[in-house]
Amino acid sequence: MPNLDCIIVGQGIAGSNLAFELLKRGKRLRIIDASWKSAACLVAAGVINPITGQRLVKSWKSGQAHPYAKKFYAALEGELGCSFYHDRKILQLCKSAEEHQLWQKRLQDPEYAPFIGAHVDCEDQSSYKSLNAKFGYHFIERSAWVEPAAIMPAYKRYFLRRGVLEESQFDFARLSLHSDCVSYGDIRAQAAIFCDGAAAVGNPYFSWLPYRCAKGEILQIASDAEIPEHIIHRGNWLMKCADGEFRIGSTWDRENLDEIPTQKARAELLAAAASIIKTRKFEVLRQSAGVRPCTATTRPHLGRHPKFPRVLSFNGFGSKGFALTPFFAAHFADYLYGFGALDPEADLKRHIKKFYR
Ligand SMILES: Cc1cc2nc3c(=O)[nH]c(=O)nc-3n(C[C@H](O)[C@H](O)[C@H](O)COP(=O)(O)OP(=O)(O)OC[C@H]3O[C@@H](n4cnc5c(N)ncnc54)[C@H](O)[C@@H]3O)c2cc1C
To answer: Distance, CA 108 to ligand 1 centroid (Å)?
Structure first.
């Protein structure tokens, strides 16, 4: 019976980054993943954006987590032997004169100024003739793109090569909890860590946590419009992915939590594309949908189950899994091995009184 430090359920970006961090620390583990049966990380844009939302505020933990992610992914590229992390500016097209003013205000704020680069005030000054720059644009600096289609298969190959990945559905009925370990089939381990993304809402140990998952859809489109290499943002994001092709996303739907592409999202994204690019010649090549593991507090759910301390959650990274999980994987590993407490905002303990029965 293999004696391991932990079993990790889920090889999405959260489970992969946590497993890598633990392997780096010499831990023995097994990852169990149902071959990405429902993996948001495969649909994601993979953008790391320090300023988000309609109010243009600095995103949570971006000051620590984003520089950490840059270093983490750079080292990981060497380990996995493939390139997937790209420093890439965001070309933020203003939607209105009011938004342009808000950017100007942010520019005066020393906390925000380092994140905001060159700007133009109106269409006439724009060098991007194919884009709708009616209200001007700003560049967001210190942003990046992690290429999901490159990193996820590279991670899978790496884990398979090391013999730590089992591609199967985790069967909760086979998990037994003992005082000194957990067991799953012929595996014994010190702990089971769930990194199961939006599937957590059906997880018998953690479904009580306040999740507010959100389906998101994206389109891959062929177009002859000239698209710069930046991540273009105007309510939606749009990114060139090959010559004559771009991806646009994403929609938000908190009702229909499935991976089925819809006509409604397609129409919404085509309208968004038409509001960003000055052409109507679009051919949809592919449409994909995934479910983000969002939480009611917009903070992850990290920590031990209140009754079964050998069962843990490393989940709830919402729409920021690529940006936040490198930093939190190290933070969680420190916590697991007694080198610090969990961030109180992310510690699932905060929900026990209100939600755990
Ligand atoms: C349209 C869209 C756009 C996005 N854009 C961005 C972006 O630009 N930047 C960013 O940082 N994030 C983005 N995200 C969010 C990002 O995808 C998530 O934050 C991230 O994928 C969460 O990682 P995860 O590993 O927790 O979950 P997932 O990626 O969903 O992975 C969960 C894994 O667990 C496995 N699993 C679940 N249950 C079981 C079980 N019982 N047995 C075995 N395996 C199981 C699944 O097969 C899956 O592989 C986007 C998401 C969507 C949908």
So the answer is: 36
Stretch 53-72: mean pLDDT: 92
Ligand 1: distance of its center to the CA of 197 in Å? 5
Assess whether 307 and 276 both reside in one domain.
Answer: no
pLDDT digits (tens, 9 = 90+) for 26-41: 999 999 999 999 899 9
Residue 65 lies in a domain: no
Which one of 292, 295, 302 would you pick to mutate in the ligand 1 pocket, going by the greatest count of ligand atoms within 8 A of its CB? 292
Question: How many structural domains does the chain have?
Answer: 3
Q: Do the domain assignments include residue 205?
A: yes
Segment 106-115, tens digit of pLDDT = 888 888 888 8
Query: Is 179 within the bounds of a domain?
Result: yes
- Residues 135-158 pLDDT 10s: 999 999 999 999 999 999 999 999
Closest residue (by CA) to atom 48 of ligand 1?
39
Domain assignment present for residue 75? The answer is: no
**CA nearest 64: which of 288, 346, 353?**
346
pLDDT at position 1 is 54
Say whether both 310 and 323 belong to one domain: yes
209 close to 295: Cβ distance less than 8 angstroms? yes
